[in-house]
Write a structure and sequence with these properties.
By secondary structure, the chain is of the alpha/beta class. The chain has one domain: Alpha-Beta Barrel (TIM Barrel). The chain is 41% helix and 15% strand. Strand 1, helix 1 and strand 2 form a beta-alpha-beta unit. The chain binds 3-methyl-2-oxobutanoic acid.
Length: 241
Amino acid sequence: MGITAYDAVMAHYADKSGVDFILVGDSVGTTQLGFETTVPVTLEMMLHHTAAVARAQPRALLVADMPFALARADFDKLMDASCRLMQEAGAEAVKIEGDAALAPHVARLTSAGIPVMGHIGLLPQQFHQLGGYRTYGRTESEKQVLLEDALALEEAGCFAILCEMTDSMFSGTLSSELKVPLIGIGSGPHCDGQILVSNDVLGLGHKPVPSFVKEYVQLGDQVESAFSAYVEEVRNRRFPS
Ligand code: KIV
């Protein structure tokens, strides 16, 4: 089971919660950096945030997202990015969004000792191509494609596969077809593990969260009232006392 974190503070608390892995997701772009999608997130941004999370020295496995399009670039660029995420920033594995077409690149990474988590189903980095978010794996043809993607990525050496917004019942089928763990997000209860975006879990954002999310606390409201109390006390000369 995993959760995302983007800085040392959140990584500290995530690690104390007992999660198995912390993902420095490229969701950093939408949750922290104010972008509309994950597309503008660069390798330099991922290095910066991954290094911050690594400084918390988490016990949990530290996975860093490969940013937009890099996995589809030539292999040397992908290899270089993976090495930088691991050697410079301290990631222990990389996550790559993509289908069976990426399997040859993934196989070369894993044979070089780079642990790779696959990511199938909804691929947010393809937002502009997809035109929106929806559930995958509802039609027979999509089920077939997703199964082939998952099996090809497993064969290429992925140690786990994340499936995002994949039909709940079909996720159960995928999980039973795979030997490696299937980690779901918005994919129902039949996966082997789950991941959520930390800002969503914490109710810490100013935009609506996806319907599959469970907000365990409304931290945004608490932050706002703490800041408001501070402003009010300073303006009324009650702080500092
Ligand atoms: O970037 C991210 O946060 C993700 C989610 C699917 C967990 O990839």
